[in-house]
Amino acid sequence: MSTQRVSQRLRLYDSDELDAVLQAMARQAAALLPPSQAALIGIQRRGEPLAERLRQHLSRQTGQPELPLYPLKVKRYADDLQVLHANTQLTENPRLAELDLANTTLLVIDDVLFEGHSLLRTCAYLAQLGARRVYTAVLVDRHVCRQPIHADIVGVHLQVAADDIVECNVPPYETEFCIDVVRHGVARCP
Q: What is the pTM of this model?
């Protein structure tokens, strides 16, 4: 008898459900962010369009203008969780130097909190630039973080097997806004 790896894709949240999740996240963010002197940092790739959606919800809920959004390219893993870089790679955003970071409250947004490398690297970078108040928000917390970092705002708490892949599909990178889990298992073949 031989074994074969098989994958199963499960849809956990569709677009309407995630819109409700983002509305709840925006309410939490509104409680943390002052109406002025606040900005959003979207970790590329999917954290940036999530931050865009979040800032639209924030603006509608508070009646305030949309907060400025600064993308930040941070990379460690491929989408399949293979390590691409031994150390988390961060590409600096020179536009952040234009902010009075010591007096600006920042909210860093990412799609999935997995081991915590991207969020930790981002927060360390912002602190190095002089930021004093930094909050973090993630759409999904997998609760396997191995770094001294946590998310202040969490949309969805998921506890899945270590080798399962949580896929946050976020336009414009994917056509549909949803969360899927790809489960890897073993099938026995005669």
A: 0.88
